[in-house]
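quick one, 71 residues, struct below
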Amino acid sequence: MKSILIKDTTREERIRIVQQSLNVCGTECEFCNGCDNLGGGIVDNLYQPYIDGEKEISEINAEYRRNFVNG
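---
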């Protein structure tokens, strides 16, 4: 598997990585609660900093867990 780190990907590759990851169940993400998206909504916006090369996916996921899952 190819690295998904910002330094190893282009913006276009990061867009594809996010889209493929969020679409793993085969349905649209908008207003879905299927993967514990609290309250539904468009979850791909959560990963915009990764797409823009500002934060790694692991950082975004850790922040999400800290702020929404662990209270």
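DSSP finds three helices and no strands in the chain.
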